[in-house]
Design goal:
about 35% helix, homodimer, alpha+beta, five-stranded antiparallel sheet
Chain lengths: ~180, ~180
């Protein structure tokens, strides 16, 4: 076998846009040293006046080292709509939580499907959360402050059975955080 | 009293950039009809290939009606850094959760301080979360998938006592959702 052919046979396998060769490399590294799996995500936030805030995300720790986030990092805001006395400058914290959840569910399916060589053609989701602001406003002690229920509808285009996709989604870290207190 | 003077005396009171007159109007409306407090936040999400997703936030329901989000809505992405096989296209779901939490804590302090006529001069925060990816990877059943701990440090410039500010922050809806399963 020529050197070129050898190199070609070692080209990374890619499933669902995920480099599976690298993914198994991560898994092997974690098996060899569990410290590799310890991550710390972080950001700073500044109040912008009224009901607006701005987060700056510049770095995180993981795989034994601190990584700089791309370029100068990400700058992302929170706001509130006029009916909640804001200016609609950005999604509000409740919307950001739903964004985190659905992004995590989708990404978790994609990673785990890639590791199992399950091809995913498309994923489209709808997510919604019910919240009774009497809890936040302190007007009804029996009403919880956060979401009382979150519903997620995912349409996954794949030949794999629904139960398999559901089992892949169940690895989602943010699902675990949120579903402990909110029915999802 | 002239009509002009009457109008001036009814100018909205603003504390911390929040229209307190409108805030008490909301509170009165909720007291008169608890249905006003029922909100439903929602978004759609599309997988962009690899470990990237895009959420579109166009509307929400609250105060008895559906509201359009500003202009054509918000389009926001999730990504992953290279060490997690992504391209750093956007913050990842774990970072978005921290953004939601700190934005909610800050906004909750500001709303409730405004209602109590407590002036806030500045808020700056740092938030970080620990996560052991062995849980997500399915390599250690005893390790949880989500954050094991989240730490928030807030510096609030105000003349109010720390305990008061802490009590205002405790109204945060997203704090309630997240702290049920993660020590915050």
């Amino acid at each position: 076998m020529s050197a070129a052919a050898t190199a070609q046979s070692k080209a990374p396998a890619v499933v669902n846009g995920v480099n599976v060769t690298a993914l198994f490399g991560v898994i092997d590294a974690v098996k060899a040293n569990p410290e590799v799996a310890k991550f710390n995500f972080r950001l700073t936030n500044k109040w912008l006046g009224g009901v607006k805030t701005r987060s700056t995300i510049k770095e995180f720790f993981g795989a034994l080292q601190t990584h700089r986030t791309k370029a100068n990092g990400f700058t992302v805001d929170t706001g509130e709509p006029p009916v909640l006395l804001g200016e609609d400058a950005a999604p509000n914290p409740g919307e950001w939580l739903l964004h985190s959840l659905v992004g995590c569910l989708t990404t978790s399916i994609v990673y785990h499907a890639a590791a199992r060589d399950i091809a995913i053609d498309a994923i489209r989701s709808e997510v919604e959360g019910d919240i009774d602001l009497r809890g936040f406003l302190g007007l009804a002690p029996e009403v919880r402050k956060g979401y009382s229920a979150i519903r997620v509808r995912m349409r996954v285009k794949t030949t794999a059975p629904v139960a398999t996709i559901e089992s892949l989604a169940s690895y989602s870290p943010m699902l675990e955080v949120i579903s402990a207190s909110v029915p999802v």
